[in-house]
Amino acid sequence: MSLRLPRVYALTDPSSGVAEPEVLADRLFAVGVRAVQLREKALADRRLLAAADTIGARARALGAAFFVNDRVDVAKLSGAGVHLGEEDLPAAEARRLLGPAAAIGVSTHDLEAARRAFADPAPDYVAFGPVFASATKTMRPARGLDALARAAAVKSRPLVAIGGITVDRLDAVWAAGADAAAMVGGLYAGGRIEENARAALDLARRHGPRRRLYLVGFMAAGKTTLGRRLAERLALPFVDLDEEIEKKSGRTVRALFETAGEPAFRALESELLAATAALPAAVVAAGGGAYAGEANRRTIAGLGTAVFLDVTLDTVRSRLKGKTDRPLFVSEEQLAGLYAARAPFYRMAPVAVRLEGCEAVEQAVDRVLVALDDFERIPL
Question: Residue 261 sits in which domain range?
Fold first, then answer.
């Protein structure tokens, strides 16, 4: 098989402070991690198999890579991939037992071992390390980035760096030629699991293609609030189309509607939307009505990717309560009619993100980023 590993590869470990590996995996999956290895050497066999079954089912539903450490038998029973150490079954024997579709990785600790592993047709990826001093690899000295680069020079399949990898070392590890970074302590430091995972994933995303993202959806869907944070996490410029309209016209959106009428507003909106072509990459918050226009939809499709922020009408009502700056919010009845009229256009967006149940901005941005990762099929 031809395996494409995400750049960020998480290993479960008691150092996470999370007693149940299934819970830990769910927390990692929720923020966007798409490669997880179950490494729980102290678990009894029955408990290990139960965890592998649960995490494996979740991984398959998400299209994520999932591996069991060392245990070919557990991998076979749970339908998982397996990661093998130097003292475990040879990769060729694991392949014979697991079949051609199973993903198999092997550990190596010096250049000659890496050469042999890459020459072996059985494994799908080769791990090399410890690159840095590691609390989980205390029996071996750190190999360093130069040794990692030498292993990368002979690779014929994905190379996974492992050992002491923290968020601030990721760029150096990838620059040395690793395709993925296996992380343990760097993910669980300080108990900030989601925070550390987000930071690692966002660095990986910044190594992906730069693009223009257009957030579309009904008024009060969160396009500006989420757009600003999304742009920060991707290190991209942020453009709020309504703010640009106000700068260009010298009037508030409401005043522009009242003095010049909606047609004039829409014309300026389309002009400034087309002007985002001057930005090589950006996050753009479009106005609530922008995507209802066919010409605007064509413009966005030609420049980037539309992302529909999907919220319920009840959520919109609660967010607009007491607001007086929305020119098209006249009454409850008018709001419901406008919501229903625009909904079919929003659903034309290639990426849709349901935001109900998000309790915080960061959680909502996670959902947007994961939806984009899945849409673009970019390994992280």
Answer: 212-376
